[in-house]
Design goal:
310 residues; 10 helices; alpha/beta
Length: 310
């Protein structure tokens, strides 16, 4: 997959089959669109092209909102590459760009810049200034600008329409199972290990404190999780805590820290990836550090059981 960070970097594609959107999470609804896109490109002896944007349009148009995203830019690139598309254009989203009318977006971007011959879009897709453009507009523009358009119907699971918003809601409620079903992969996040207050070390459960790589990356509900941990392409097992650590800290600062099982190497400054497998319990305040230590031992055994390790 070739990646371009501005549409002007794109050098063109044969019989370009194109889709566009934010694709946050690259969830199963997105995957259905991408699968069809690749089929359409193959049938036309062409190449598949995805046009997406950075930053997320809502962060530009509604800067005061606290939008939490399922993917960082690098995570999204990885997911889209796994989907098998040929070209990924990540165009800078600005207020000026947002003012393009639907017709200008089609003519100037999809046709003149990309050379779209086939356009595949998701259900209820809107584009252009004030989201004025719709599938009906594309059907109208297609014959004029020489492309065919196809709309993918809504994807249902148990009669629930899949969306990035619903996945975010599930994660914020600690519902990893629903999130993983809709994503088709286990939720993960990455960051550098930074020095903490070493409280975990003092009670026999040393932790790696993670400084997340993006301030907009969604952090799931507070609590204790069984996790996989990737360190320098090596997989480990561990127990993650998200929360305020109320038993040992009076600060109102959320921490994300992982106790990696059977691991004693120095990690400060190292980037690690945590892959959530199972939520064990809510975060709790304990009456004493001894009670906390006792619970952490139970948590560790519960995590090992869910991770199927001894």
């Amino acid at each position: 997959m070739k990646v371009y960070y501005h549409i002007e970097e794109f050098e063109g594609a044969a019989n370009a089959a194109v889709t566009t959107g934010t694709f946050d999470g690259a969830h199963i609804g997105h995957q259905k669109i991408l699968k069809r896109l690749i089929e359409v490109a193959k049938n036309a002896n062409g190449e598949s092209v995805l046009l997406t944007f950075h930053p997320h349009p809502r962060l530009v148009l509604q800067p005061d909102i606290d939008l939490q995203l399922l993917n960082t830019q690098q995570e999204k690139i990885k997911r889209l590459e796994l989907a098998g598309i040929d070209h990924l254009i990540i165009h800078p989203f600005t207020k000026e760009f947002s003012r393009l009318s639907s017709m200008e977006f089609v003519r100037d971007i999809l046709v003149d810049q990309i050379g779209t011959k086939k356009l595949v879009i998701g259900y209820d897709h809107h584009f252009g200034r004030n989201r004025e453009g719709s599938f009906e507009h594309l059907l109208e523009y297609g014959p004029t600008y020489g492309f065919d358009v196809e709309e993918i119907s809504a994807l249902d699971i148990d009669h629930v329409n899949v969306s990035s918003t619903k996945i975010r809601t599930a994660l914020l409620q600690g519902d990893l199972e629903t999130a993983a079903t809709y994503l088709s992969y286990n939720y993960e996040f990455s960051g550098k290990v930074v020095k903490g207050k070493q409280i975990g070390r003092s009670i026999g459960f040393p932790t790696a404190n993670i400084d997340l790589e993006s301030s907009h990356k969604l952090i799931p509900a507070d609590g204790v999780y069984a996790v996989h941990v990737k360190i320098n392409n090596s997989l480990h097992y561990g127990m993650l805590n998200i929360g305020l650590r109320p038993t040992v800290s009076n600060e109102n600062t959320k921490s994300v820290e992982v106790n990696i099982f059977d691991f004693d190497q120095e990690l400060y400054g190292t980037e690690i990836t945590v892959i959530l497998q199972h939520r064990v319990r809510d975060e709790q305040r304990f009456s004493s550090v001894d009670n906390l230590k006792s619970q952490l031992e139970k948590d560790k055994q519960a995590c090992k059981k869910h991770l199927n390790i001894s």
